[in-house]
Amino acid sequence: MELSPAAPDQPPVPPPLRAEASLHGDALGLAESVIMGVAGSGPAYSVAASTAALVGTVGILAPASLLYCGLIMFGVVFAFRHLNRMEVNAGASYTWVGKVFSPALGFFAGWSMLISSVLFMVSGTLPAATGTLQLLTPGLVDNQNAVTLVAAVWLVVIGGIVAKGIKLTSYTQIAFTAIEAGVLALLIGLAAARFGHMPAHAFSLAWLTGAGFTPELFASGALVALFALSGWDVTVNLNEETRDGGRVAGRGSIVAVIAVVLLLVGSCAAALLVLSDAEIRKAGINIVFVVAGKLLPYPWSCIAVIAVMLSTVGTLETSILQFTRTLFAMGRDRVVHPRYARLHPTYRTPWLATMLITALGLLLLFLSSYLSGIKAVIGDSISAIGFQVAFYYGVAGFACAWHFRRPALTSPGKLFFLLVWPLLGAGFCLFIAAYSVPTFDATTNIVGLGSIAAGIVPYWWSRMRAQAYAGTATELR
Predict the structure, then answer these.
(1) For the chain, which domains are there?
(2) Low-confidence ranges of the chain (pLDDT < 70)
(3) Is 69:229 a contact under the CB 8 Å cutoff?
(4) Residue 334 zone, left/alpha/beta (φ > 0; ψ -120 to 50; rest)
(5) φ and ψ at 28, to 5 degrees?
(6) Quick one: pLDDT at residue 37?
(7) Which of 152, 162, 190, 437 is deepest in the core (most CB within 10 A)?
């Protein structure tokens, strides 16, 4: 596959590399694609990381916030599905935005995805480490050095699994996701059965209808909801490794988002049924454990610890997959160093890219140990990741609407699914990102905005390499 010709003001780029070997094609089917999409969002982890913050922001309207943001998010889901049919490429939004708009905007869409994945190495591994210590040595849960060390071990192990091959990765995800989804469904059912007649918060249809939302209130909780719902797009980063990837990867993302929305809305409602506002605030990122403790006797309540831990590890795995497949595509197109397009001769995985994100994750974990606390690290990275995800989701949604603008006018159905809904999803993502910036503290803005802006350095480096290539090609002629 070749990128579209560069704009007149841009130097020609070197032709894409001929890969030494292709990614492991036809490795995943529809069921595995769905599992990967659900694992990418990590429902149990998302509930733990976002519920207390969301309830603290919008109160009992938290389930409605997730539901409505999920419906709007489907505009982006359908945009990715249509763009994936246009071209099957592991670079996903990087490739599509670059072809539809410009290589520069495509680069920054890909860069945002890369940065968000690197940041997740902190916000993903720390809860996994906390859960591990809760099961093995509870006395060390509040010891930040111990948590950081265990997080580093998890990161190395998962990096090794991803480097080993996509089939081993998919088998791991099937086991992890089945456990976490089963535990969340069990807790939702028990909460309804045991607290339905004496809830901590009286049930109201507003929980689902959102009656009482003001535009400001909805917007204030939307970034948290957007973070909770993100990650499903790993399905399209794996499209080159999926059977009939042009169709199956898009279908997998749709089914995955439906499952994630149901689990998140149900779990949020369960927390409102079981816990008071004070208990939710106190629980913080341990909210799944606290809910399970009220519904199940010890030691059965420990299944919540296992679910969140496996969910977090699974989401960590899909973040590494997204990073490595995007960097592989960028290396193949020579917009980053071609070494990242090299595949392991046996496992057919981008092993250098996997080593890179593992090393970056270990570095960030080391640096995070000097911050004030684990909660601060997770909170800052969640907001920053939400901003970055909103950016690359948004530009991809606009790319879909622009590319398919003429086919969209041929029927009402195509108008809605190719143009209206993707535009709504894209506009929502970019608006929420812009709306949230003034609410961030300086650290979050530096991490969220500054890391995207830092992409100008590798972008100009790629332009300089392209100019050098153009000069060499001219001399040879």
Answers:
(1) 30-390+437-467 (1.20.1740.10)
(2) 1-21, 371-380, 469-477
(3) yes
(4) left
(5) -120, 145
(6) 96
(7) 162
